[in-house]
């Protein structure tokens, strides 16, 4: 199902959005992110979302090691719709968010709920509502060996036939979400201009990780 399903345009997306700050959790348009919800304020957020539009904004804390109750967050996140959920006997929720569109935080609202809400601006990400027209621009010939070396480095395996057949956007976004990149690297992937830029950035991250000797400090994207 297209992320545009039921939407005529970004003007139909909610202008105020509950946010869920979670380091290392990356949601991208049309991507699917499973979440286990157990903290009381976020249980309240999920219940409220299920009752009204099912939309939640995923954001990352600026400091992934922060233990603050309300950490400062990156200004760009991704709105997702709850497309599946299970409520356990102990009250926890297991949900799946399907990404709709990225957004920029314009303002954080005064607290009237246990969770945080922001004014979300989707204007610069209007193209997120449709699959990219130039997904074929992804350089698979460079991606495949970089990914293979990266997975071998981490002792991971992959279904290479499925990877070769996967549509470019689905492949790049899935890899961006599941590969163990650092939170700042995941944020950079989120904010990439388009799928081609995201693919180029991912290839660079994979190649830098493989090239770095064991124990070397992380190489950061400039």
UniProtKB/TrEMBL annotation:
Pfam families: LON_substr_bdg. Gene3D superfamilies: LON domain-like. SUPFAM superfamilies: PUA domain-like (SSF88697). Residues 17-210 form the Lon N-terminal domain. SMART domains: LON. PANTHER family: ATP-DEPENDENT PROTEASE LA (LON) DOMAIN PROTEIN. This is Peptidase S16. It comes from Zavarzinia aquatilis.
